[in-house]
């Protein structure tokens, strides 16, 4: 059964799957699509056009902007920010206030089972691979491979992790261990 806290701001044009829970002060804008059995934390912001798959967890104060797609089973930690403009400016070169026609929305995708740690910033235009793990406070400026563990600013590949979170030396080893853990694609 779905649950929407009375203080949540849900545009009537939002699509929300069954069993999803939306908590205090969350805002979900028109055109967003939220899958089944998701948890949307307190004060999370989900912009127009954002796609969230099934069984995702979006923690408190996360900001998900237009141009973002989360596949199924993605974890987004508290205070995570997904950007959507690689060249943000308030005004045009002539000094006029920028409008929607003055910039191009970047596209970001977070693949199945990936996790984004607390306070991370994901710069638009990247893909975070399947079962990848982004460390807390990392700033991701380029693609993260499947099973990759990235940390730092800018985020660097530290090692690989299995679907269950065990460190591995290679993506192949992470896949093999994940299969032993019961991983499915």
What's the short story on this structure?
The chain is mainly β.
Task: Report on the architecture of this protein.
The protein is mainly beta and 185 residues long. The chain has a single domain, classed as Hexapeptide repeat proteins (UDP N-Acetylglucosamine Acyltransferase, domain 1, 3 Solenoid), CATH 2.160.10.10. Helix content is 5%, strand content 29%. The protein has 1 helix and 23 strands. The chain has a 10-stranded mixed beta sheet with strand order 1-4-7-10-13-16-19-21-22-23. A 7-stranded parallel beta sheet has the order 2-5-8-11-14-17-20, with no helix packed on it. Strand 22 and strand 23 form a beta hairpin. The two termini are 27 Å apart. The model has no long low-confidence stretch (mean pLDDT 96).
Write down the CATH class: Mainly Beta
Overall mean confidence score, pLDDT: 96
Main sheet specs: 10 strands, mixed
- Category by helix and strand content: mainly beta
CATH topology: UDP N-Acetylglucosamine Acyltransferase, domain 1
């Amino acid at each position: 059964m779905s649950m929407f806290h009375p203080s949540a701001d849900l545009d009537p044009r939002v699509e929300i799957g069954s069993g999803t829970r939306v908590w205090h002060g969350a805002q979900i804008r028109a055109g967003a699509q939220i899958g089944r059995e998701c948890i949307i934390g307190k004060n999370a912001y989900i912009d127009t056009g954002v796609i969230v798959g099934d069984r995702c967890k979006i923690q408190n104060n996360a900001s998900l902007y237009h141009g973002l797609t989360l596949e199924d089973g993605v974890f987004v930690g508290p205070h995570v920010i997904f950007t959507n403009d690689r060249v943000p400016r308030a005004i045009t070169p002539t000094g006029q206030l920028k409008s929607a026609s003055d910039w191009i929305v970047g596209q970001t995708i977070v693949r199945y089972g990936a996790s984004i740690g607390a306070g991370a910033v994901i710069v638009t235009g990247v893909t975070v691979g399947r079962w990848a793990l982004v460390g807390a406070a990392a700033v991701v400026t380029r693609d993260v491979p499947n099973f990759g563990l990235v940390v730092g600013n800018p985020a660097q590949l530290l090692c690989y992790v299995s679907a269950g979170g065990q460190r591995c030396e290679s993506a192949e080893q992470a896949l093999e261990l994940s299969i032993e853990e019961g991983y499915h694609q």
